Structure formats: structure tokens, C-alpha cells
Amino acid sequence: MYFPKKSYNVMTLNEDFAVKENNVSAGLPAHETVYRTLRERILFGELTPGQAVTIQGLIDQLGAGMTPVREAIRRLTAEGALVFQGNRRVCVPILSQANLDELAFARSAIEKQLVFLAAQRVTPTEIAALREIDAALDSAIAKGDVGTYLRCNYEFHKALYHMANAPILTHLADGLWLRYGPSLRVVCGRLGTQNLVDQHKQAIAAMVNKDPHSAAEAMSADVTQGMDQVALALHLQER
Amino acid sequence: MYFPKKSYNVMTLNEDFAVKENNVSAGLPAHETVYRTLRERILFGELTPGQAVTIQGLIDQLGAGMTPVREAIRRLTAEGALVFQGNRRVCVPILSQANLDELAFARSAIEKQLVFLAAQRVTPTEIAALREIDAALDSAIAKGDVGTYLRCNYEFHKALYHMANAPILTHLADGLWLRYGPSLRVVCGRLGTQNLVDQHKQAIAAMVNKDPHSAAEAMSADVTQGMDQVALALHLQER
DNA sequence: CATTAAAAAATTTGATCATATTCTGATGGA
DNA sequence: TCCATCAGAATATGATCAAATTTTTTAATG
Description:
2 copies of one chain form a homodimer. Chain A is mostly helical and 239 residues long. Chain A has helices at residues 14-21, 30-43, 55-62, 66-78, 97-121, 124-143, 146-164, 167-191, 200-208, 212-237, and strands at residues 52-53, 83-85, 89-91. In chain A, a hairpin with a 3-residue loop joins strand 2 and strand 3 (89-91). In chain A, helix 8 (167-191) crosses helix 10. Chain A is globular. The first copy, chain A, starts with 13 loop residues before the first helix and ends with a helix. The interface between A and B is medium-sized, with 29 and 29 residues. The structure holds a DNA duplex (30 and 30 nucleotides).
């Protein structure tokens, strides 16, 4: 049994940080807030492959304490979003072609299954929500708004994961996204949104038709296509 | 495990702990040592599904400081080996049948690919090493030695991962093992080693024959078979 | 008067921070 | 080029505060 608490302490800088930096409702632990902030930055490109991430830097930037920052970094390192760089340093990983191949395989396999599950449970309301996200995505592409495109694309996939109701597979897919995000961001930042294609409409159509297999194939193709484009663009860049 | 209870020291106990308790070469950071120790405990069953893991408890048991323990827990939580229990507490997750299904799918898909890659690169020396591990495994089964069986089984799979030379997929497979370990341990602890079967010899034979596809199929079957057995045993237990 | 439920204290545990210590890489002199 | 020294960054600890659980006390009801 527990009872309501008295008003919140005033002296911590964290509240300030939580509210100002990251409009997440206060009350979350600082390590969680730091984690989410860093995660966003990695996913949507404030941090680029190869970039160093220092504890001190984050403490200064976020106004957070040392322990929460350390915990957030450990978590992201465990998820593969950051890597230990030699001794005591961490940075955003740079993906080799072999890494991209691994990611393409894993993402394709996992997302395929997630969409297969999602297609069996999807409701008309959810279909409408997907269409709405996809429209926003198309609009962002048309405008060349890379940031919005990245967020909408992520949101579309996340919505599918949610429908699948498979927490472990969702966690895996989310982790893979975290590895892939920085590279996608680099490619889009360099090439813009002009050449972007996806299979979202095909997937939605298959879901409407109650055809889980086709939906799964569509999203598998979507993933593979995206990964191929990134691999190509990153590879071109090297010359 | 016998850890010194008293902590009336002045200098750090950690070196002592790192060297004596966990024959890891000294010089590793404490958070790494704590992580590895906890990981072992989860994989090989000192911790059972549902069991609470407290920071204070680990500090007392391991003689480690608070920050390293917290970091290790964050890391394992990110890997799915531990879960947040309501408010602020963590415990070893209890897998539902749906969770087991997800795990079976993911493990099968990932390991299949890893073995496929491994079979293309395997050397005679490595084949010999696999046979050696498998022999130790059979011996453990014959003796009913659950602990050794679990370790050998893990070692066999890890050896395959290593041969595949695919760090991201290996990391994924390792993480999945961490989720699956506690339940496997429970089942083996309850039913002994008598009913255990595997496809290791078929996989080795396929690798010798330079047949990556068959090797992949064999290990996929191995994984599925194992997961099914665990699911069955856990389910039976509930009645 | 006993039983039970709510309230309050006490205890345990988690979260955060300030600080001391250790390590790494860089700089500069021999 | 090599070694010593030094600044800065990471690691680790214990103190402090907040939150949640457990235990004890209190009050109300039959």
C-alpha cells in the first residue's frame, strides 16, 4: 500500500532539463530521459556515424548528472547504437558493407514476421492511422523535408510493430533501427528525398485484403530496398 | 558462490572480487566484471524466471560499488535479460507461450543464417573443435550433469557464431540466448538431461560436406526442437 | 472483545550527485 | 625517437535524498 507524495523537490537541475530539452512528462527517472534524448538524436541524425560521444559532453549539454548519463550510454551500447572505441571511449558505429548485409537480413526477417502478425490483427482504425502517417511521409518527400521524412518513416514501421503485439520481436526490430538510423540519415542528408521509394501502399493494400503473406512480402521488400539504397549511396560516397 | 560478507575494508574490494571470484584478468572495469558475472548467472541458472534482482543485493554479494552494478543492470535490461518490474525494480522475466513463440522464430531465423555463413568458412580445425564440444555435451547428458550440459550447449552455438564472422547477427543471437537461458535451465533442472536431443551431428556432417543449406536447416531444426521442448515442459508444469 | 481495515512509522531499496581516483592520450624536452 | 609529465576524461565510491514496501499502530465495526 502506498500513499501520494508531497510536492517535488526543487533543487535538482533535472526537472528543468526534462521539461526544456525533451518535453517528456516529468516524473520519469533522469536516466530514462537521457536515454530517450540520446536515442532520438541517434535515430534522427544529430549524431552521425563515427562521431564520438563523451560523458562529460552529455553532462554539459543536457544538464544531467553523471550516473544517469553513464547508464544511458551503457544501455545504448548494449543495443548496438553506440560502440566502445578502443579504450573507454564510445562513438556512433560506422557500418561496413558486411554490417549492412547483416542488418538487411535481420531487419527483413524480423519485420516480415511482425507485419505478418500485424496483418492478422489489424483494425480499420489502424489502417486509417497508417494511411495518415504515409500521407505525411509522402508530403515530406515532396517537400524535401528530410527530418520529417525520417520521423514519419520510423513512425510507420513502429505503428506496424505495435499492431503485431509481439514485444520481443518489436524490441529486436527497434534495436536494429537504432543501428541503421544514422546511416540512413547520412544518405538522406546527402541525396535528399528525391530518390526515396517504399512499399507502404502495397503493404496497406495487402492488409486491407486480409492477405498477411503479401503484406509481409511487401514490407520485406521495403526493408531490403531501403537497405540497398543506403548501401549504394554510402558506397558511392567513398570514391 | 561464496562471497566475503564483511566489508570493513578501506581500499576497494573490487580487485579482490574481480580476480578471485571471477577469474577474469584484472584490469577490466568493474562494471564489465559485474556484467559478466550477472550474465553467467542468468544464462546458467543461478537466477530463475521471476526472481528479483536488487542493486543493493548485488552490491552486497559482489562487493562492488553502486555505479558499476547499476550499469550492468541497465545493460542486461537493454538486452532483455532483465525487465523492469513495475516501479524501479527489475527481475528475470517469465516467458509466456507467446514470448516463447517469438523467441523460437527469431532464434531459428538468426541461427540459420549464422550457420549458413559459418558453413562457408569453416576449417577442419574448427570442425574438430565442434566435435570436441559435442562429445563433452553428450557426456554431460549421459551423466545427467545439467550445469555442464548447459555450458557445452551454449559453447557449441557460440563456436558456430564465431565462425560466421557476423558481429551483428552474433550479438542478436547472444541476446536471444540470454532471454531463453533461464527457462531452459528451469526445464532441465526439473526433467534432467534424459530427454534432450539435438541436431548437432547432422549440422557437423553437413558442414563437412560443404553443404551450407543443410547445415542451416539442421541448426534451425535444433533450435526449434529445443524451444518446443521447453515450451512443452513449462506448459505441462502449469497443470 | 476480537477482527479487520486504514494510517503511520520504520525499513529497505532506488536515484542522483559530488568527489576522489585511475587511466589515456598529448605535449614537450632530452 | 623515446620517455616523462600533465591535462582531461572515465571509473568508482559513499553520501544523501526520494520512493516503495513492510511492519506496527490505531481506529472502527460486528
